[in-house]
Write a structure and sequence with these properties.
Helix content: 40-55%
Mean pLDDT: 83
Distance between the termini: 59 Å
Shape: rod-shaped
Number of strands: 29
Strand content: 15-25%
Largest sheet: 8 strands, mixed
Amino acid sequence: MRVGLAMNWPRLILVSSVVFLMGLYVSLPNSPYKKLEFAAYDQMVAWGPAARSDQRIILIDIDEKSLRDVGPWPWPRKQVATLISQITQNYQVALLGVDIVFPEAKDGDALLKAALNQPNVVFSQVLDFSEASQNQVGQLAGLSPVQDASLFHPVTGYIANHPNLLQADSQIGHISPLIDADGKVRRIIPLACAPIGCTTALSLRMYQALHGAKQMHGQINKKNLQLSLSSGEILTLPLDQERAMPIPYRVRVGGFDYLSASDVLRGRVAPATLNNAVVLLGSTALGLGDHVATPTHSIVPGLEIHAQLVSAMLDQDFITPQYGWAWLLVPCLLIVLFYLLWPWRNTKGLIIWMTLSGGLVVAVSIILFMQRGWWIPLSPMPLMVALLGVLGLVLESMRLNQQLRVVAHQFSRFIPESLVKRLIRGRLVGPSSDKRELTVLVADMRGFTGASESKSPEAVAELAQKCLDTLTQVVYQFGGTIEKYSGDGLMAIWGAPNSDPMHAKHAVEAGIIMQENIENLASWFIAHDFKPMKVSVGINTGEMAVGVFGGDAHLAWTAHGDAVNVASRIEQLTRNVKESLLMGWKTAELYGMDKVRYCGDHYVKGRLGLVAVYTLK
C-alpha cells in the first residue's frame, strides 16, 4: 500500500498542476488561448466541406466599371431608385438585399423610398456595439419588440437611414459583423436590441422576407435563437457564448456570381439571369465598398459575408459551437485517464503518448466539424497534452534521478563517492591517474584463520563481515577511502580522491581506533563462539599514482607505487616486531616524532634496503 501511495501522489500533483495551469491560461486577459482558438477555428473552416458556388444568390456590384459608366458615387437618388426598380420589377428577382445605407436627405428621396419599401426589398443600417460609441445618425427602423431584450446584444450607436426613406413596414436589417481581436470576421450578431426595439441581421431579415414574415417572433437561450416564420417553420440559429452566430463560409471565395451594376441598370443582363434569384446589391469599388479579413481569405468583399449567411440559412447548414463544461471536461478526463493508464513512462513512451493524444484530439475535432458541423473549442486540449507530457517527463526525470541517487549511494560503497559523481557526469571514461603524496593504511585481522577453524562457511562469512564492517566505519569516520578488501583485512588511503592535508594524522588516528573497536568486540566473539582477535595495522606515506587503472573490459580505482608496497610489508612486520601498529618514517614525521617510538630498521620482502619503522609511545 505504501508503494502504491508513493506512486499516486506524483500523478495527483501532476493532474492538479495541469488543471491549475489550464485555468490560469484560459482566464488571463488577452490570453494566447484566444489566438490558438482563432487559429484552430480558421483551419477547421478552411478544411470544411465548402461548396464551390451557389447559383441561387447573385451579387450586383457597384464596381469600378459602374463608376466609369454612370459616374462617381454617390449617385443621384433617382439613379439608385431606378437601379433598384430595374432589379426588382424588370428582372423579377425573388428578393433584393441592399447593402447600402442612406443617412442623409437628398433630392429624389421619394423615388428611392418607393423603391426601397417594396415587398421584395430589404435594406440596411449599421449598428455599433462598442461601449463608448456616440454615433447616432439617421433613424433606426425595422424594429420589433422582444421579451427580455437584455439577453440580446445591446446597441450603443448606429448609422441608419434618413426618416424620409422609411415607412412603418420597412424591411431593414443590420450589416455589422463582429470583428475579433485579430481583425477577422468570424461571427455576426443575428439579433441586437436598442432601447426602442430589436433588429435582425440583413441576412436573417432577408430569410424572413423570403418566407413572408413581416415581424420577428422568436426566443433565445444560451445555445440558439429560434425564429417562428409565417409558414410555421422554425429557424434555429446556433449561438456561441456571446450570443453571436458563426459565419459558415460554406461557399468558396469567388463562388458567387457578380454582375456589374451598370450592366443591370442599362439592361445589358439577360432577364433569365436574375429571374427568381436572391440578389444582394453593394459595392466592391476602391474607397466605396467594405472589405474584411475572414478565416478563409485575407480580403473579402463585405457583400459576400451576407451572401454566405443567406446561403447557409437557405440550406440550414450552420456551424454549431459546443460550449459548456461537459464538452471540455469529458475530453479532459479521457486524456487524463489515457495518461494514467499509459504504461510506458520513459521519455520515448511519453513522447509517443503526447503524439497519440494530440493526434486523437485533432482527429476527433476534425471529424465532428466535418460530419456534424460541431465546433468544439478543444484548443486547450493540445496544450493539456503538452503540459501532461512535459510534466510527465519531469516526473520521469525525477524518478530516474532518484534511482540514480540510490544507485550512486550503493555504488559509492564500492568506489569513492567523488568517483561515482564523475562517472554520473560522464567524466570518468578511461584510465587516468594523478601523482601525489598519500598515506596508506593496511589492516589485517590477527588470529582470523584459527578463529575460523572448523566453522561453517556461513559462520566464517559472518565473522569476516563483522570485522570488516568495524574497520570500514573507522576509515570513513576519519575521512579515508577504502581501496580494496583482502580476505579478512583492507587497504585504505587518505589524501585521495579527496585532498586531505592531514592525511598522515588521520590515518594513524584511524589505526588507533581500529584496534580499540576490535578489542571491544571481545564479547561478540565469545557470544558467537569465536576466539578473541586483534588487528595489526601498517601505515606508510609517500608519493603514489592514484586513479583509474585497467583494460578496456574492466577498470578499477586504486593506488600504485613503492609506498603502497611498503605499507603492506610494514603491516607484516608487526608480527616480528611484536607491535600491533607500525608506521614508516614519513608517516611518523608528519604525525609528530614526539608521539612515536623508533622500532629499528628492518628488511622487508622485495626490498634491498632497510625500512625504518615506528610505533606509538
